[in-house]
């Protein structure tokens, strides 16, 4: 038991989504690497700034301290205009007393007795430098959160353009994919157009190097298939055609024997021979029809109504079997509208369906023949056909539950015409709404010009 049908993605969609995902992943990876590199560079720059501030403040602080009187409290350096200090400093003596500090400094957060150099404490980056044999120490301070925020803003500046790049890249990839895949789509339509007797070589212009060999392989396959079908049709047609002349001659001789012989036993044998020859003649005619049904030319170059063709077929069947009282024929005044089905192919289809209904329906029962708007139906009375056998009736030499004579090729020929012309054939038994009967329904093609 097969699972649920999986959703298939086109090659263009796969390429588009794949490329956009690849660009997104690579962009994010590049932004991550850039963030790591940027963090290292920012650490170096701000550490250098801490060191530079300490080295600039140290001589100024020493000069300020020399001019101060003993016992003065720690002095705050007033800011020059309103601004936020990202780097603050504290100047202490050798005993750890605060002597000088910047306006935004927080001495209580800065440990005392720090050695010279860099260190990180409680989310702060510190740099300490001493002078005058350790009697004056300057510690510069920067919050590590400031560095994190700088790196975060820089990385976001790299990532935000990705939001605009993704839809633009997706549209560009789709447009480029359509232009690139156009020859492949044309090639696909060429393959889809094959069938209905059309096995001509494919038009493989503009295909990329990866697809061009496939076109050659498909052409080779079509050529082999065309040769096999032509050989089969030729054998069937030639065999049936070659049999017609000797069968007709043998049938004429058998009928002459029937007329000339006086012995009743001999005449019965001659009649049996004549009946066998007539069945053989009918079989050869069916084989000829099957060869045509499986050949090309099932679609007409110019659309035409099929009503006149059906009228001729019904007239020919009545002349041959004298069944006018059994046929109930309905043909619309406009002939059923124009159809692209070849008239000869429709004649073969209609003749076999009507003959099949006459032979295998109830004796002396009515056969309804209806040609409607792009639909052809033939129904007859008779016992219902089992569903399993109904499915096999379109096979060659397959017969239903009947004692009537026949070759078992009628519905096979009809199915071959429908298959070759792209028509839908429905066989229903019993007839819908009834307990018995047999209905054959063919959906006829509409005119291309009308569509």
From TrEMBL:
User: What EC designation does it have?
Assistant: 2.7.13.3
InterPro entries, A to Z: HAMP_dom, HATPase_C_sf, HATPase_dom, His_kinase_dom, HisK_dim/P_dom, HisK_dim/P_sf, TCS_sensor_his_kinase
Chief localization class?
membrane
Q: How does it sit in the membrane?
A: Multi-pass membrane protein
Q: Boundaries of each Histidine kinase domain copy?
A: 238-448
All copies of the HAMP domain together span: 178-230
What is the protein name given in its UniProt record? histidine kinase
Q: Does the keyword Disulfide bond apply?
A: no
TM annotation in the entry: 15-38, 154-176
Species annotation: Siculibacillus lacustris
Catalysed reaction equations from the record: ATP + protein L-histidine = ADP + protein N-phospho-L-histidine
**One Pfam entry name:** HATPase_c
Task: Return the GO cellular component terms, semicolon-separated.
Answer: plasma membrane
Q: What UniProt keywords are attached to this protein's entry?
A: ATP-binding, Kinase, Membrane, Nucleotide-binding, Phosphoprotein, Transferase, Transmembrane, Transmembrane helix, Two-component regulatory system
Molecular function via GO = ATP binding; phosphorelay sensor kinase activity
Question: Where does the protein end up?
Answer: Membrane
């Amino acid at each position: 038991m097969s699972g649920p049908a999986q959703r298939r993605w086109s090659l263009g969609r796969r390429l588009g989504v794949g490329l956009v995902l690849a660009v997104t992943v690579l962009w994010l990876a590049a932004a991550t690497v850039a963030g790591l590199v940027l963090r290292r560079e920012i650490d170096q720059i701000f550490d250098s700034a801490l060191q530079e501030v300490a080295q600039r403040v140290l001589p100024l602080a020493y000069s300020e301290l020399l001019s101060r009187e003993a016992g003065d409290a720690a002095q705050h350096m007033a800011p020059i205009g309103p601004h936020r200090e990202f780097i603050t400093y504290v100047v202490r003596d050798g005993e750890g007393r605060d002597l000088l500090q910047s306006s935004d400094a927080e001495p209580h957060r800065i440990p005392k007795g720090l050695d010279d150099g860099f260190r990180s404490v409680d989310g702060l980056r510190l740099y300490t430098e001493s002078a005058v044999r350790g009697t004056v120490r300057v510690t510069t301070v920067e919050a590590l959160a400031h560095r994190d925020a700088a790196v975060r803003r820089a990385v976001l500046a790299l990532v935000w353009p990705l939001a605009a790049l993704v839809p633009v890249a997706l549209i560009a990839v789709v447009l480029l994919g359509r232009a690139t895949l156009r020859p492949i789509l044309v090639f696909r339509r060429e393959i889809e157009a094959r069938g209905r007797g059309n096995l001509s070589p494919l038009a493989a212009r503009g295909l990329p190097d990866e697809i061009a060999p496939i076109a050659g392989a498909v052409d080779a396959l079509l050529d082999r298939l065309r040769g096999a079908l032509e050989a089969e049709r030729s054998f069937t047609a030639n065999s049936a055609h070659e049999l017609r002349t000797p069968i007709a001659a043998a049938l004429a001789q058998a009928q002459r024997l029937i007329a000339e012989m006086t012995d009743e036993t001999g005449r019965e044998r001659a009649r049996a021979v004549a009946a066998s020859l007539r069945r053989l003649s009918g079989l050869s005619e069916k084989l000829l029809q099957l060869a045509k049904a499986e050949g090309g030319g099932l679609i007409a170059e110019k659309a035409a109504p099929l009503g006149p063709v059906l009228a001729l077929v019904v007239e020919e069947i009545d002349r041959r079997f004298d069944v006018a009282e059994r046929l109930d024929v309905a043909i619309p005044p406009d002939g059923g509208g124009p159809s692209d089905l070849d008239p000869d192919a429709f004649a073969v289809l209609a003749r076999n369906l009507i003959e099949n209904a006459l032979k295998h329906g109830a004796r002396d029962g009515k056969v309804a023949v209806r040609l409607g708007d792009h639909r052809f139906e033939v129904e007859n009375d008779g016992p219902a056909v089992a569903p399993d056998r109904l499915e096999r009736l379109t096979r060659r030499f397959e017969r239903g539950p009947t004692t009537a004579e026949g070759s078992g090729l009628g519905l096979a020929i009809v199915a071959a015409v429908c298959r070759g012309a792209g028509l839908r054939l429905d066989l229903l038994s019993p007839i819908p709404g009834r307990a018995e009967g047999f209905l054959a329904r063919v959906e006829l093609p509409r005119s291309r010009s009308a569509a």
